[in-house]
Design a protein that fits this description.
This is STARD3 N-terminal-like protein isoform X3. By secondary structure, the chain is mostly helical. The protein contains eight helices and no strands.
């Protein structure tokens, strides 16, 4: 092929591709972008995400469930008043369940303060509560005489251990990744909105704009046709 013809074809192809890219940029719907930004900003104004609120509810369930089991244990072993005085006032590490209840209170206070009040986005608080719970329960099971006191000697330590690790799993694999993903989506949408705002002409709702061909492009195309006919002759 003649070099002059190749240059003309390259110039025409570049002009058409530039028009296509302009059409793609101007086809962005600003209304749609603004609606998505408002939806993400509305979630931020809530103060706490849905998945984080579910996590806080589960932490509350942890405390209430352990408290319920402890009250049942008090009532089974000779009445609430007598057993409460024995386990709290005359506390004995080797036979009392009161410290397991306090462990649930500790988890509740730390996790609610960190992830509901301070809205922490790190795992160190849940790591602290889970490590303390696991170490304390393992030591208590090994050293104490809970297994000789009936079914509650098995139930309370196992339930507390499982709840602590379920909280860790839920925060690490659900709460933090989902909130990070939503934040990234918001940044992407905001960036697209800023780019759309730089487009001149102020598009209306649902309007698509395609720029007309310039005179230089028309002349280039005409020149290309003339040169092609001359070359073929």
């Amino acid at each position: 092929m003649n070099p002059l013809q190749e240059d003309m074809e390259n110039a025409l192809t570049g002009s058409q591709s530039s028009h296509a890219s302009l059409r793609d940029v101007h086809s962005i719907n600003p209304t749609h972008l603004m609606a998505r930004i408002e939806s993400y900003e509305g979630r931020e104004k809530k103060g706490i995400s849905d998945v984080r609120r579910t996590f806080c509810l589960f932490v509350t369930f942890d405390l209430l469930f352990v408290t319920l089991l402890w009250i049942i244990e008090l009532n089974v072993n000779g009445g609430i008043e007598n057993t409460l005085e024995k386990e709290v006032v005359q506390y004995d590490y080797y036979s009392s369940y009161f410290d397991i209840f306090l462990l649930a209170v500790f988890r509740f206070k730390v996790l609610i303060l960190a992830y509901a009040v301070c809205r922490l986005r790190h795992w160190w608080a849940i790591a602290l509560t889970t490590a303390v719970t696991s170490a304390f329960l393992l030591a208590k099971v090994i050293l104490s005489k809970l297994f000789s006191q009936g079914a509650f000697g098995y139930v309370l330590p196992i339930i507390s251990f499982l709840l602590a690790w379920i909280e860790t799993w839920f925060l690490d694999f659900k709460v933090l990744p989902q909130e990070a993903e939503e934040e990234n989506r918001l940044l992407i949408v905001q960036d697209a909105s800023e780019r759309a705002a730089l487009i001149p002409g102020g598009l209306s709702d649902g309007q698509f704009y395609s720029p007309p061909e310039s005179e230089a492009d028309s002349m280039a195309f005409s020149t290309y046709k003339i040169m092609s006919s001359v070359i073929h002759q």
